[in-house]
Amino acid sequence: MKTNKRWVIKLGTGILTRKDGRLDGSQFSQIIAQVAALNRKGYEVVLVTSGAIGAGMEAMEHDSRPSQITELQACATVGQIRLMAEYQKRLLKHDLHGAQLLLTYWDLDSRSCYENARRTLQFLLEKKNFIPIVNENDAISGEEIKVGDNDRLSAHVACMVQADWLVILSNVEGLLESPDEPDKLISIVRHLDADVWNLAKGTNSERSVGGMTTKLLAAKIAAESGITTVIANGRDKNVLIDLAAGKKRGTRFVLE
Ligand code: GLU
User: Fold this and answer.
1) Is residue 1 part of a domain?
2) What is the atom index within ligand 1 of the atom nearest the CA of 55?
3) pLDDT of 193-223, one tens digit each?
4) Total number of domains constituting the chain
5) Which atom of ligand 1 is nearest to the CA of 207?
6) Which residues constitute the domain of residue 10?
7) For the residues 24-32, what does the mean pLDDT come to?
8) Segment 112-122, tens digit of pLDDT
């Protein structure tokens, strides 16, 4: 029987960091509290997290995103460990453990690597108190061959674990009818047609990658595989709990 309880949740840099670029501890706390509540209700959750480069920039005292690739990759290595420390600290409070998986484009492309990643995730999910936390392995992914953004990475991970839902949390409410009218949220998308693509506007923040276009690309990958995809605001303190309770939040993609 389909339970709809296997969720991949993507957390964008914008909701994990404060305006000054520092990791936002209160956001980690509220998100992990919701993940723990879902876990207690029998949900199997995989997190796909961004924020490594952002956290590394803070530690390495970069005000803007380094343009030099080695510097950027070094930022990711410094930031990744800080990011995981934030997750682990909160998860332990709920008797949960984080399990880090860093993937590259090659891992998705190679049958044996893909299978290994899939089996590892499946094993962890069956253990119930382990929360896999996935990011791209930025330090070894060359610029020319990268998944590139965690929106699409999260869609691939959702397909890999045959998730029921992919929830992409960022600092926007969802897909808007117009960028100037934040209250005009499109609650459901059934066809990814030209009009919908036209609504997507790229963002170019110093710390994060992607924008609405990459979120739509992710929705396309996941929703075409039958995975209910939601784009919602990760600063909304009950968003995951509300979605699980069947309340309308964000934009939902259920393609026909
Ligand atoms: N892997 C990048 C990071 O951890 C994020 C990429 C993205 O946000 O799409 O900083």
Assistant:
1) no
2) 10
3) 998 888 886 544 545 556 888 999 999 999 9
4) 1
5) 10
6) 6-253
7) 97
8) 999 999 999 99
CATH of the domain at 225: 3.40.1160.10
pTM (2 d.p.): 0.95
Strand order in the sheet with 165-170: 97-103, 130-136, 44-49, 6-11, 165-170, 228-233, 251-253, 188-189
C-alpha of residue 148 to centroid of ligand 1, in Å: 8
Q: Which amino acid is at 118?
A: R
Ligand 1 pocket residue status of 53, Cβ below 6 Å: yes
Q: Is the Cβ atom of 51 under 6 angstroms away from ligand 1?
A: yes
**Exposed/middle/buried for 153, CB within 10 Å: 0-12, 13-18, 19+?**
buried
Amino acid in the structure at residue 167: V
Establish whether residue 14 lines the binding site of ligand 1, counting it when its CB lies within 6 angstroms of any ligand atom.
no
164, part of any domain = yes
Strands 130-136 and 44-49: parallel
Give the mutation target among 9, 11, 13, 204 for probing the ligand 1 site: most ligand atoms within 8 A of CB.
13
